Amino acid sequence: MKYYLFRSAIVCLFFSCQPDTIVEVPVAPEDRGLEYYIEEFRSEAEARGVLVDFRFDLIEASIEPIEEDRVAGQCSVRAGDRKITIDSDYWRRSTPQLREWVVFHEYGHCYLGRGHRDDQTESGICRSVMNSGTTDCRINYHSRTREAYLDELFSKQ
Fold it and tell me: What is the pTM of this model?
């Protein structure tokens, strides 16, 4: 009987001490939250030699309704506090590429201090992520053009 209890205790101890197996499930692009795109901004900036340290340069960011028509995002600065707001309707109906575009655009304002850049190519394509959206140029942001757009965004212009 003692042997049975001892053996049972050892078996329970052995199985209860095994580390949990962590299985990472990939997140579909359309399910990525705002934090994912903020981290992408930091990563892409640093890949181009621009140090981004949000511990010292705090920027509040949220997804919530914006009452103004045709506004996908805003960078607000009040008394030195910076806040980025992404319109919840825009976020819900946008592709991952357009989500990244608007987050990078607003961080271009709030973090990099960039203004709007509305120039376009001869064929009407926006030249910059920092386009104001008030011109008739077309956004051409996708996997083949992303690097050029990001190089321009993080350039010292």
Answer: 0.80
